[in-house]
Amino acid sequence: MNTHHGIVLFFLPDRGYGYLRLVGTREEFYFRRGNITGPAVQRGDRVTFTLKKGRQGYFADEVQPAGIA
Fold first, then answer.
1. Global pTM value
2. 20 and 49 in contact (C-beta within 8 Å)?
3. 34, 32, 29, 36: which is closest to 53 by C-alpha?
4. Alpha-carbon distance values, 20 to 3, 8, 53 (Å)
5. Burial of residue 43 (number of CB atoms within 10 Å: 0-12, 13-18, 19+)
6. Beta carbons of 64 and 48 less than 8 angstroms apart
7. How far apart are CA 24 and CA 12, in angstroms?
8. How many C-beta neighbours within 10 Å does residue 8 have?
9. Which fold is adopted by the domain 4-65?
10. How buried is residue 39: exposed, middle or buried, by Cβ count under 10 Å (0-12/13-18/19+)?
11. pLDDT tens digits in sequence order for the chain, 69 residues long
């Protein structure tokens, strides 16, 4: 799987979802609390993630702050 780099646009912990933008593009992807594999993320964080295809298109999975191994 390809790992991508993005920036968190927002994450609403009380609702359990957020969006991030692929670095260098205007593409945005949805993610849920269950898709975060590292520490909690917040607006402006640089993250790495993989893309998975769901029923409504692609979403971000394995989201974690960049630099976490």
1. 0.90
2. yes
3. 29
4. 14, 4, 16
5. exposed
6. yes
7. 24
8. 21
9. OB fold (Dihydrolipoamide Acetyltransferase, E2P) (2.40.50)
10. exposed
11. 689 999 999 999 999 999 999 999 999 999 999 999 988 899 999 999 999 999 999 999 999 999 754
CA-derived radius of gyration, the chain: 11
Domain ranges of the chain: 4-65
Contact 29, 4 (CB under 8 A): no
Element (H, E) at 47: strand 46-54
- Neighbouring C-beta atoms of residue 13, cutoff 10 Å: 11
